[in-house]
Sequence to fold (308 residues):
Amino acid sequence: MSLRRHLLESCDLHTVLDCPGGTFQGAGVKTVVLFFEKGRPTRKVWYYQLEPGRNLGKTNPLNDADLSDFIDRQKDFAATAKSWSVDVSAIDTATYDLSVKNPHGGETVTHRSPQEIIEEIAALDAECAEVLENIRGLSCDSVFTQRGPGWEEKKLGDVATLQRGFDLLTQDRVSGEYPLVSSSGISDTHHKSAVRGPGVVTGRSGSIGNVFFIEDDFWPLNTVLYVKDFHGYVPRFVFHLLNHFDLKMFATGSGVPTLNRNFVHDELVMVPTSVAKQKRSQTISTPCPPKPNAWRASTSGSGRRWRR
Fold:
């Protein structure tokens, strides 16, 4: 909130460009681009919802033609069905919320053609078949107890450094787009995140043993441990590696059991030396998406929801 307030008071935030998911490679969620000039405070913010009319991705990126209408409209900050202005006096000073909220109605839903859906299903089937072939005859235990060339023994703390989550009182929580992760999984949402995704979380106090993979930015509560440093290892591989352990055996305390991360850090594990081996190993036990305990954000007309 303080950052948004500083931005509005010390800079002229004149434009917010709302981009669809897939605009930037690696960011599956929607992204906004802020245009501002330092030196004078904001008087009015002009919003523009970019709708290229197709699904964006690595093979179908944003192009100059997609931005032509935005560039034309920005010259005079025109008001249209997908662009509008908000006076700074109308922004709630309690939160300084700059979220994109089109006053002309909900977002336009772009429906894919039946052929596109069929092709995606066929691609997923092919991916599943390839993964199943790779892991045929293998088990999760055999993967994480590998020995020989291409594998090395390390302390778990040198593969994934665990850190206690953050305090956040119930009265301080503000509903938003980021998941709040407790020892039993995603329990609520918050208007800001504390950790960049993707991330791996496990219960620290109360419910111990569950391991969760969080796709996007999130807020880990103080009842969990999250992986603060992956030390260059693939996050989803670390997720499966932690799932391989019986983390309950590291719990201490006779009343409310608590997971001692120092004990976990000293545990010796076998890990592949190459990223390719990590990616192959992470398919064990979960050969076809969606992955268990992997939480993703989905956007619908009623807002942001979280699903496994």
